[in-house]
Amino acid sequence: MRVSLLQIAVNNNETVESRRVRVAALVSAQAGADLVVLPELWTVGAFAADLYDAGAEPVPGGPTAEAMSAAALDAGVWLHAGSVVERGAGQDGPLYNTSLVFSPDGELRHTYRKIHRFGFDRGEAALMAAGHEVVTAPLPQATLGLATCYDLRFPELFRLLVDAGAQLLVIPAGWPARRREHWTLLARARAVESQAYVLACGTAGTHADVELAGHSIVIDPWGVVLAEAGPGEEVLTVDLDPALVGKTRADFPVLRDRVLGMPTPTPAAGPS
């Protein structure tokens, strides 16, 4: 299974419309990949909270969804198009940080509204509503578990994704450079504890006066880093073996020994 992570640079000197056209062309160039992944909020910028309202789009039917649908169809790939600022129902509907997954025929198959919002009562945490659904996306080769950026700090979400069948954990992000070590550490931890691949696609560049970390990373179920990008815009392409997930879980079956958080077994009925 070939995956390509497109680490997009988001800078103030490029309009959203120009970036959307540029990114669509980059996606279209990935013909031959099975899965292409984009970062979080690459249209307006993850830290540009003052642009969220003006840059919000309906899902489906917004300009980013339309452009990414066409690009996925053009390349013939499954596309995790990162996330957009979604405008919920109504002219003044709530905002969500929403990820979009398209099939190779350009159909929007799955959406995920970010559950954990960053900002500690400011920025995203104050301006966006929280999602509530744990979302997986079955592909022909493997099942994706969907999470976004700050979600990475909450391992209980990833336990739920594993229980729902996830084999590849896909995490688009707009992670700041000043906490890059946390990005790498947490991504490896989620891979090891979940015995799953982690595909963590970050943003490059500087916007809203925040330098982004870049350093998109692909990690195997043993926690081995298969590939890591640098700080700038970059395409990271890696060949994965989804069967390694099942083999790892069978050879080193730690997940079956979970106790806390597991459903309480129902006692067997005694003789009547």
Automatic annotation (TrEMBL):
Residues 1-242 form the CN hydrolase domain. PROSITE patterns: CN_HYDROLASE (PS50263), UPF0012 (PS01227). It comes from the Bacteria. This is Carbon-nitrogen family hydrolase. It comes from Actinacidiphila oryziradicis. InterPro entries: C-N_Hydrolase, C-N_Hydrolase_sf, UPF0012_CS. The keyword Hydrolase applies. It holds the Pfam family CN_hydrolase. The keyword Membrane does not apply. Belongs to the carbon-nitrogen hydrolase superfamily. NIT1/NIT2 family. Keywords: Hydrolase. GO terms for molecular function: hydrolase activity.
